[in-house]
């Protein structure tokens, strides 16, 4: 299928590795030029070179922390008028919600809610004027199936989820959509880090924890980042103008509910 976005420009946040990198890879494979952000300037520059060499598109790195004013300014200076925006930021730490400080709650809200809202605000009206825009937010399956150790992430991401539903409909006539992708247990550094912490708390080895979690997934495995990237590229395509304000779960069948 031709996604109809060749020659478009995408701003992909947190794209030096993990799910953000997978999204950038899938978009580049469709002929989309990229501006990618990340906190590690060297890793980001390497990712930009690899993406450009592999797919023959223009890839511009904009180093910085997208959850900060400076990082957002750098990204928007490099790409002030994207056709596509993929919001992505690292999740907050796991832990007992009763132990988190006020500063930790505010930091989680900044990283996983406010930053995405500010990036959307910066680009969405321009998208509407140009009559094309695709915004995809990488959130978490935890917004549908919360667990206590991820309370910081759940609270912040649910705020973003509510915001998206509030505003998405008002831009649909302009062919601008906003959708959320909700991943659960994809093979990333973030998954390994989380499982290490859970295993340590439970007194198990990392491999034992991985096997227990893997066995509980109906698909019988963890997700592959390339699968996630392909779904992201589809939601950025010319074919999704009639889908907006949606939450798309990618969890291998874990979620037990109907809705």
Order of helices and strands: EHEHEHEHEHEHHHE
Distance between the termini: 28 Å
Q: Give the tally of β-strands.
A: 7
* Overall geometry: globular
Rg (CA only): 18 Å
As a percent range, the share of strand residues is 5-15%
Enumerate how many helices there are, as a single number: 8
Uncertain segments = none
Q: Assembly type of the shown chains? A: single chain
Please give the largest β-sheet. 7 strands, parallel
In which order are the strands of the major sheet placed? 3-2-1-4-5-6-7
What percentage of residues falls in helices of 4 or more residues? 40-55%
- Judged by helices, strands and strand pairing, the structural class is alpha/beta
Average pLDDT value? 96
SSE topology sketch:
Elements: E1 9-12, H1 18-29, E2 33-38, H2 41-55, E3 59-63, H3 69-78, E4 84-87, H4 102-130, E5 133-138, H5 151-168, E6 176-183, H6 189-202, H7 206-215, H8 225-235, E7 247-250
Parallel strand pairs: 1-2, 1-4, 2-3, 4-5, 5-6, 6-7
Would you mind describing this structure in some detail?
The chain has eight helices and seven strands; from the N terminus they run βαβαβαβαβαβαααβ. A seven-stranded parallel sheet has the order 3-2-1-4-5-6-7, with helices on both faces. The protein is globular, with a radius of gyration of 18 Å. It starts with 8 loop residues before the first strand and ends in a 9-residue tail after the last strand. The mean pLDDT is 96. Helix 1 packs parallel to helix 2, helix 1 packs across helix 8 and helix 4 runs parallel beside helix 5. It has 259 residues and is of the alpha/beta class.
């Amino acid at each position: 299928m031709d996604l109809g976005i060749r020659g478009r420009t995408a701003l992909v946040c947190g794209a030096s590795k993990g799910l953000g990198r997978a999204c950038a890879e899938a978009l580049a494979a469709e002929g989309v030029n990229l501006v990618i952000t990340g906190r590690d300037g060297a890793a980001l520059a390497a990712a930009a070179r690899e993406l450009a060499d592999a797919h023959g598109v223009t890839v511009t790195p904009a180093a910085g922390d997208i959850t900060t004013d400076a990082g957002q300014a750098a990204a928007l200076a490099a790409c002030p008028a994207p056709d596509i925006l993929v919001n992505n930021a690292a999740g907050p730490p796991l832990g007992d919600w009763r132990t988190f400080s006020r500063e930790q709650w505010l930091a989680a809200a900044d990283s996983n809610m406010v930053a995405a809202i500010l990036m959307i605000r910066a680009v969405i009206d321009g998208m509407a004027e140009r009559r094309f825009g695709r915004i995809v937010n990488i959130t978490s399956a935890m917004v549908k199936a919360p667990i206590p150790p991820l309370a910081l992430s759940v609270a912040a991401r649910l705020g973003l989820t509510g915001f998206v539903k509030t505003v998405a409909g008002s831009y649909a006539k302009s062919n601008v959509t906003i959708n959320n992708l909700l991943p659960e247990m994809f093979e990333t550094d973030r998954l390994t880090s989380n499982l290490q912490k859970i295993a340590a708390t439970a007194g198990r080895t990392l491999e034992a924890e991985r096997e227990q979690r893997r066995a509980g997934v109906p698909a019988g495995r963890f997700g592959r980042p390339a699968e996630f990237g392909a779904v992201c590229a589809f939601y950025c395509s010319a074919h999704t103008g009639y889908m907006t304000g949606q939450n798309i779960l990618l969890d291998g069948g874990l979620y037990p509910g109907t809705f």
